[in-house]
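Co-fold these.
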Amino acid sequence: MNKFLLILGFLLGPGQTVLAEERIALIPPSAYDRAAIYLNLALFWVALIVLIVLIRLKLREIERVQAMDAGRDDENIPMLD
Amino acid sequence: MNFPRLRGWFEERYDLTDVAAAVKKKFVPVHSREIWYYTGGIVLFLFIIQFFSGLALAFYYIPYFEAAHKSVIDIVTKLNMGWFFRSLHHWGAQLTILVMFVHVFATLLLKSYRKPRELQWVSGFFLLGICIFFGLSGYFLLWDERAFAAVRVATGGAGNLPIFGAWIKAFLRGGIDVTGETLTRFYAFHVSVLPLLTLAVLGVHLLLVQLHGMSVPLSQKGKTQRQVPFFPNAFCRDLMIWLVVLGIVVTLATLLPPDIAKKADPLAPPPENVKPEWYFLFLFQTLKLFPGTLAGMNGETIAIVFISLAIMFLFLMPFFDKKSSSGERSPLFTCIGLGYLLYFVVMTIVGYFT
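Predicted complex below.
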C-alpha cells in the first residue's frame, strides 16, 4: 500500500515533471519579458510606419518637382556674361 | 543634407562623375505589372538580413555533432536576444526561398527570360538552387531528429541519380551515412562555400540587370511607355517595401519562434510522420507517386530522373521559347509555366496536409 501511495504521489505530484518531456522555452518565459517583447514589437511597427510615411512624402515631393520639369536645363537661358 | 565638405573630400580624391552619370541614366519602365520588379529587390534585402543574423549566430554555434544541438538551445535560452536572432534567421530563410520562387515564376510567366536576358535567367536559377541548399544545410545544423531524417532522405534521393548519384551522396554526407562528418561538411557549405557562391552569382545577376535594364512584359509592349528614374523614384519604393518586409520578418520571428526537436540519434529509427521543409514537399510528394519498382527498375531512381529532366527543361526554357525571343506571344510556354506553378503549389499543399 505504501509503495502504491509512493508511486501515486510521484506521478501526481512534482515528480511527474521528471517524466514529462523537457520543453525548451523558445522565447523568454516570464510574463514581464513577454510584455516587453510585444510592446517593443508594437513600437517597432510604429517606427516603420513613420519611416514609410516620411519616404512617401519625400517621393511625392520628388515627383512634383519632376512633373514641373525643373531639373531640365533650358538651352535658351540668357547668360549675364 | 548635402554634406558639401564630405562630398568635396571624395571628389578631390576620386572621380565619381561616371558613377553618378550611370545612376542618373538608369530608368525603370512604369506599367501595370511593375509590382513583380520588386520581388528581386526583396530577395536582395532578405539576403542582407540573413547575412547579419547568421553572423550573430555563428559567434555562438558549435559545429560539432556532440555540442551542436546544445549550442542551439543555449543560444535560444541563455543568450540575450539569442532566441530572436535564431528565429529571425529561420523566418528570413523561409521568406527568402518563398519570394525567390515568386520571383522565378513571375519571370517565367512574364517571359522576362527572353532574348537577350537568357543568362539572367540562368544565373537566377543557380541562385535558387544555392538558396535551397542554404536552407537544407542550415536546417541540418540544428542536429535534431527531424533535420537528421530530412537530410538522410534528401542526400539519399541525390544518391539515386544515375551515374554521378553515388558520388554526390558520398560527397554531401562525407561518408556512407549521415554522421557528424556530414554536420561539419554542411557547416562549411553553409558559412563559407554557399555565401561565396551567392556573392559571385548575385554579382553576375545584378550586373546583367544593369546591362540589359528592366524587361517590359510582351503584353505591355506597344502601349505608351512611361519611365521613371531608378534613383530616387524606384529606389524610394524599394525602400518602403523593404521596411514592410522587415516588419513582417520581425513579427514572424517574435510571434512564431521555430521549435527545436529532440537531439538527433544516428542509431535511432526516424520519427513518425517526418516531413521535409515546405520547399521540398513537391519533390517528396512526387516520389510518393512512383511505385517501388517500375518496369523492373527502381521506382525512386525513375522518379529522380523524371524530376531532374523536368527541372532541366525549366532551366533551359529561354532557349526553347523561340517565339518570345522574337517578340511574339507564346501561349504554349505560358501554359507550360502555369503547369509548373500549379504542380508546385498543389503538390506542396497536398504534401503539407497529408
